[in-house]
């Protein structure tokens, strides 16, 4: 009986520890993303509220409390005249999606999914099936079933925007394994808004 109580106690401690660690994952990922954006990202970014927009200082915005977005061409002349992505829009994008490890994503970092035609030859060199990915622009209906974090990242973008979106696991694939993506993985989507309808 004593052994049974010992096993029950160990199981209870394990469950409590898992619960504690799950509660720490989200704030930990948020802190790491902000740290990356403000120190390692090139250019270093500031929060939108701290940006000196007259000096065209690069900044990130936060949506849904866990989606961090940087628009590379935010200060481009004429950008404010282009069509904006709204909740009812159809949006065509070219993208690269990565499991985010809180470090700089380079040209040698291979995405877990992409439709970027510039990657097609590298993809085929790896011996991957030619028809596994479509290298055509992807059109999304904002009212449809799309990744929650991607929806947040797209809202407010404009046609022609070049965007980096970093999202915590709860805005991506959650706490379950999804294909080759480990559970509770933050992800990064780099995309260009090709068209907005």
Q: What does this protein structure show overall?
A:
This protein is of the alpha+beta class and 197 residues long. The protein has one domain (26-196): Chitinase A, domain 3. It is 26% helix and 22% strand. The protein is built from three helices and eight strands, in the order H-E-E-E-E-E-H-E-H-E-E. The chain has helices spanning 2-40, 120-125, 148-154; strands at 46-47, 59-63, 67-71, 90-99, 113-114, 138-141, 162-167, 187-196. Strands 1, 2, 3, 4, 5, 6, 7 and 8 form an eight-stranded mixed sheet that branches. The chain is globular, with a radius of gyration of 20 Å. The model is unreliable at 1-20 (pLDDT under 50).
CATH-level-2 architecture: Roll
Overall shape:
globular
CATH topology: Chitinase A, domain 3
Strand content: 15-25%
Mind describing the biggest β-sheet? Answer: 8 strands, mixed
Number of domains: 1
What is the average of the pLDDT values? 87
Oligomer: single chain
Radius of gyration: 20 Å
Number of helices: 3
* Residues in helices, as a percent range: 25-40%
Distance between the termini: 68 Å
Outline of the structure:
This protein has helices at 2-40, 120-125, 148-154; strands at 46-47, 59-63, 67-71, 90-99, 113-114, 138-141, 162-167, 187-196. With 197 residues, the protein is α+β, with helices and mostly antiparallel strands.
């Amino acid at each position: 009986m004593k052994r049974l109580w010992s096993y029950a106690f160990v199981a209870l401690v394990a469950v409590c520890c898992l619960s504690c660690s799950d509660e720490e994952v989200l704030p930990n990922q948020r802190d790491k993303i902000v740290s990356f954006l403000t120190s390692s990202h090139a250019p270093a970014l500031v929060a939108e509220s701290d940006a000196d927009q007259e000096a065209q200082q690069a900044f990130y915005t936060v949506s849904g409390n866990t989606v961090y977005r940087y628009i590379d061409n935010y200060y481009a002349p004429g950008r404010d005249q282009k069509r904006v992505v709204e909740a009812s829009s159809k949006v065509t994008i070219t993208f690269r999606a990565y499991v985010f490890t809180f470090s700089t994503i380079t040209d040698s970092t291979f995405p877990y999914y992409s439709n970027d035609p510039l990657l097609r030859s590298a993809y085929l060199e790896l011996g991957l099936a030619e028809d596994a990915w479509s290298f055509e622009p992807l059109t999304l209906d904002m009212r449809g079933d799309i990744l929650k974090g991607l929806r947040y990242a797209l809202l407010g973008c404009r046609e022609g925007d070049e965007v980096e979106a970093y999202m915590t696991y709860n805005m991506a694939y959650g706490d379950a394994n999804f294909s080759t993506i480990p559970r509770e993985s933050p992800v990064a989507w780099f995309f260009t808004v090709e068209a907005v309808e």
